[in-house]
Amino acid sequence: MPASSRAAAQLMQGRWFKTLPEALRQYLLTEASEISLAPGARLFARDDAADGLYAVVQGSIRISSGDDQAREAILAFVSPPEWFGEIALFDGKTRTHDAFAAGETQLVHVDQDRLLGFLREYPRYWQDLGLLLTTKLRQTFSFMEDATLLPSSVRMARRLASMVENFGEQAGRSRRVVELQQDQLAKLIGVSRQTCNQILKELESQGCISIAYGRIEILDSAALRQFVPQKGSSR
């Protein structure tokens, strides 16, 4: 069943999707099936066989990995209207990480075999799928550079700003809410929960954010991008 008009409207807010050639965009919308996930439900696991592309319409997907000691490394949160799952589309190998619903989540899914058949018939569209992959690769390199060169407080400020920019990519909205537990944010940045709490309080004191349970309201995303730790801060 094709994506609903509501899902299509949300996906059209995405920078990548709305600039696709009309034929590819319509194909994805026509082939998309909609999926609902309860909070904490697993979409796929590391080493699962590839089954196609996904896009988030509502809620969020947590991309992570864990070990046999129940420790978790969080790599990213995928929010509307982002597409994901393209790595396995290119190499045909298994999933690289686990994917869980971070809250009540609505997705669209395009089957891998059907999409590959379409791309065999119209190979010119591979480049458009490649742009989805390279955009994320550039962002990953940026995060790796930040992790090496910047203090944790600046990394957190920039990551929050980046997350805000992914929430619909809509112009004219100056106040956004990130639904995220502090322990999850700490794992995403690679700091202790205590350090995470201290940094968030510092960001709040400078008017960048407002903190509530399970929610971080972004008051000034430009200030987050330009954030400088208070004098004497070691973070």
Give me the secondary-structure category: alpha+beta
Spatial extent as radius of gyration: 18 Å
Indicate the mean pLDDT. Answer: 90
Share of β-strand residues = 15-25%
How are the strands of the largest sheet arranged?
Answer: 1-8-3-6
Distance between the termini: 50 Å
Structure description:
By secondary structure, the protein is α+β, with helices and mostly antiparallel strands. It is built from ten helices and eleven strands. It has helices at residues 5-11, 15-18, 22-31, 86-91, 112-121, 126-149, 152-166, 182-189, 193-205, 221-225, and strands at residues 33-37, 42-44, 52-58, 61-66, 72-78, 83-84, 98-101, 105-111, 176-179, 209-212, 215-218. Strands 1-8-3-6 form a four-stranded antiparallel β-sheet. Helix 7 (152-166) packs across helix 9 and helix 8 (182-189) crosses helix 9 (193-205). The longest helix has 24 residues, at 126-149. It starts with a helix and ends in a 10-residue tail after the last helix. Residues 167-175 have low confidence and may be disordered.
Quick structural summary:
The chain contains 10 helices and 11 strands.
List the helices and strands and how they pair.
Layout: H1 5-11, H2 15-18, H3 22-31, E1 33-37, E2 42-44, E3 52-58, E4 61-66, E5 72-78, E6 83-84, H4 86-91, E7 98-101, E8 105-111, H5 112-121, H6 126-149, H7 152-166, E9 176-179, H8 182-189, H9 193-205, E10 209-212, E11 215-218, H10 221-225
Antiparallel strand pairs: 1-8, 2-7, 3-6, 3-8, 4-5, 4-7, 9-11, 10-11
Helix pairs in contact: 7-9, 8-9
